[in-house]
User: Which sequence fits this backbone?
């Protein structure tokens, strides 16, 4: 038993914000109340800290199997635990692609053996994520996937998208799309605009994303399926999502910390500023923050994309897309969104807990009988993020050396302390 | 020396002034100085080039420096070596500076952040080609006596042109009035943000009216990612012909960074005509590059060099 004492319990799901103790028994929450006592329980003193439901990351890359030089399930989940995440959804673009049950089972087994936090695999929508034939979605669901996606590539063919949505709807799975029009993307490396012109870097127009979001919303209208827009980065995309929500469609979306923090003005000839979707204009960034505040955006997701140093230490246009993100995600939320007064702390917690849970069709709350997954954080702890000190195998972060106020102080997964600062 | 964008107008004027003695020097019968004797310049071209490479190599040699050349076609890059490993290998041979041409925008800056020796950008992707803009400015100043207040029109594929970017930066900083003209897909509206007071137009007649300098860009077929314009369409809309040149101020100077595709972006009669400064540009390229190498590698003070005093016997 683990008794968390003296903390402030902040749970958007149960609308709790009070000084309460939480007793964990095994892998479940047993009791919530004031001044709890339990014979023989280990005590966790959470004085001055906030106790929230365990954070969920809807979007990450753990690189196993196949790219263990950049990350493994073990190193990635240890980094996730430091960031306060109790569960992470890993994208299927591994080698081989997670497009069948045996790969899914391999990931689940490895996560059970070596994972610091829960790993919920996302299966490929199409075989090899090639956008041609449906993957073995039903078998993968039986093996443990929580959603499907061809992340990294859009599902370019609308008819295939329709089939994926219809099939996933019947299986109760959300379809996550990486929205991008390949012909407009056209080999671009950053957002098209004054800054891409100044740097002489091939631009990707914002519409490359929003055109695809618009199409997906139309297909969601046709199929009535659950559609989730991954790493949304433009106000045009946000407008389509708002229309869809207004019409009652089951359309959700996520925004990454780097897209609400940085803009295309920050891009330098440093591949730590290269990700896909690229950093957006200031107007887009501000619109995304508006969406995070008003509920149009459902979740903050990291898109943690580790790449080993040698692959990133190259010319900007030759570097792979992506940055790491587990350990800076919530601190960026506190600094950029809450400290600036744009979001309440409760809203930020929603975006890491009930929001992503809702996308997956599950609940996440602090209540008796619920899984004992908790994130205990400080809003005042001052620290500096050092990529070299991260358990992740990769250090490709533009936030290396940045100072933060607030961080996860302990991450509890299934009643065990997975990380303690 | 990575780009014009970060230079001040004073620094630009200084480089141009410093290029003057080297310009005169090109007319001397014995073209060899001892200024950089014992120094070595690495000339690393990761992208095919003839004129810029020869110009830099010649500039270094006329200053008395030795050069070590790397060319993409024959280099270890073909064997999969990364840029950073290649330039670190070159640096280990202890050159005093490195000149880099690369197809990736920002490659010289990437290299400069990781090496100790001075880096000179000889053209990077679609970003900058600073020595081209400086030699263009020198040519304009010689012919027109000034840069400030001049009407300069840059004509062609602005989007993919590093020459255009460096010239836009330089000319704007020096107070020229710059007009950009080209087909719509090569002239994105956001180009207007590159510098203050830029004028953009798709109509060549409008662009040429009142122009005192016309810079014709090469149509860069190797950098075009989108479906390109049919050559006949380009010729009909944007080729600089004798008739169109009549729209500019009398005696307007015509420049072209080369290599020229005759009959595409420029009519031969214009390229070879009295208003063309094309060959002066080539000679001035040597002067500008000598001045830059002298200052970057020679570790010189602000004093102007004295070619006459420094000149050595050609057999030296």
Assistant:
């Amino acid at each position: 038993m683990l008794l968390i004492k003296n903390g402030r319990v902040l749970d958007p799901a149960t609308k709790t914000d009070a000084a309460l103790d939480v007793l964990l028994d095994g892998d479940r929450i047993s009791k919530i109340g004031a001044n709890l006592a339990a014979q023989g329980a280990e005590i966790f003193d959470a004085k001055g800290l906030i106790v929230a439901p365990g954070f969920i990351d809807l979007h990450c890359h753990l690189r196993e199997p196949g790219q263990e030089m950049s990350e493994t399930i073990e190193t990635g989940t240890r980094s996730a635990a430091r960031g306060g995440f109790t569960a992470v959804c890993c994208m299927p673009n591994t080698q081989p692609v997670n497009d069948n049950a045996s790969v899914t089972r391999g990931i689940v087994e490895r996560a059970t053996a070596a994972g610091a936090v829960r790993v919920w695999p996302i299966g490929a929508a199409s075989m090899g994520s090639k956008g041609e034939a449906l993957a073995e979605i039903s078998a993968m669901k039986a093996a443990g996937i929580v959603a499907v996606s061809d992340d990294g590539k859009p599902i370019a063919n609308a008819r295939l998208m329709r089939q994926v949505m219809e099939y996933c709807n019947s299986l109760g799975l959300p379809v996550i799309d990486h929205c991008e029009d390949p012909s407009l993307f056209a080999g671009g490396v950053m957002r098209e605009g004054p800054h891409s012109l100044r740097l002489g870097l091939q631009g990707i127009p914002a519409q490359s994303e929003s055109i695809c979001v618009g199409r997906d919303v139309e297909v969601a209208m046709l199929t009535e399926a659950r559609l989730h827009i991954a790493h949304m980065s433009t106000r045009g995309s946000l407008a389509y999502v708002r229309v869809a929500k207004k019409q009652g469609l089951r359309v959700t979306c996520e925004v990454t910390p780097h897209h609400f923090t940085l803009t295309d003005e920050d891009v330098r000839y440093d591949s730590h500023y290269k990700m896909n979707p690229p950093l957006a204009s200031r107007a887009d960034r501000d619109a995304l923050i508006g969406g995070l505040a008003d509920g149009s955006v459902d979740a903050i997701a990291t898109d943690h994309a580790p790449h080993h140093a040698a692959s990133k230490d190259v010319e900007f246009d030759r570097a792979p897309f992506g940055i790491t993100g587990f350990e800076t995600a919530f601190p960026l939320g506190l600094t950029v969104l809450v400290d600036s007064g744009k979001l309440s702390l409760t809203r930020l917690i929603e975006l890491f807990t009930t929001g992503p849970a809702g996308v997956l069709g599950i609940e996440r709350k602090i209540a008796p009988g619920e899984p004992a997954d908790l994130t205990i954080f400080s809003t005042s702890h001052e620290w500096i993020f050092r990529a070299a000190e991260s358990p992740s195998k990769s250090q490709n972060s533009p936030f290396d050396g940045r100072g933060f106020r607030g961080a996860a102080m302990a991450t509890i997964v299934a009643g065990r302390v997975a990380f303690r600062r | 020396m990575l780009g014009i964008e970060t230079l001040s107008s004073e620094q630009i004027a200084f480089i141009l002034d410093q290029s003057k003695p080297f310009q005169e020097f090109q007319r001397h019968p014995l073209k060899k100085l001892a200024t950089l004797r014992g120094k070595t310049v690495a000339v690393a071209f990761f992208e095919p080039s003839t004129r810029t490479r020869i110009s830099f190599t010649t500039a270094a040699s006329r200053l008395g420096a030795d050069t070590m050349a790397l060319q993409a076609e024959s280099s270890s890059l073909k064997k999969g070596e990364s840029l950073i490993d290649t330039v670190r290998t070159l640096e280990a041979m202890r050159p005093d500076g490195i000149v880099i041409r690369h197809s990736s925008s920002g490659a010289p800056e990437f290299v400069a952040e990781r090496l100790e020796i001075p880096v000179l950008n000889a053209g990077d992707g679609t970003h900058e080609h600073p020595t081209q803009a400086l030699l263009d400015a020198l040519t304009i100043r010689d012919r027109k006596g000034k840069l400030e207040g001049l009407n300069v029109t840059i004509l062609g594929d602005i989007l993919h042109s590093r020459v255009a970017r460096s010239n836009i930066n330089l000319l704007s900083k020096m107070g020229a009035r710059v007009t950009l003209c080209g087909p719509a897909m090569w002239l994105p509206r956001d180009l207007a943000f590159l510098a203050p007071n830029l004028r953009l137009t798709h109509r060549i007649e409008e662009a040429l009216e009142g122009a005192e300098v016309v810079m014709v860009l090469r149509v860069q077929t190797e950098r075009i990612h989108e479906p390109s314009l049919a050559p006949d369409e380009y010729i009909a809309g944007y080729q600089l012909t004798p008739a169109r040149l009549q729209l500019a101020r009398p005696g307007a100077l015509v420049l072209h960074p080369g290599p020229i595709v005759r009959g595409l972006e420029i009519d031969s009669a214009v390229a070879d005509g009295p208003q063309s400064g094309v060959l002066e540009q080539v000679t001035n390229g040597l002067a500008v590059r000598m001045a830059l190498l002298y200052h970057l590698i020679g570790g010189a003070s602000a004093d102007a060099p004295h070619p006459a005093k420094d000149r050595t016997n050609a057999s030296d």
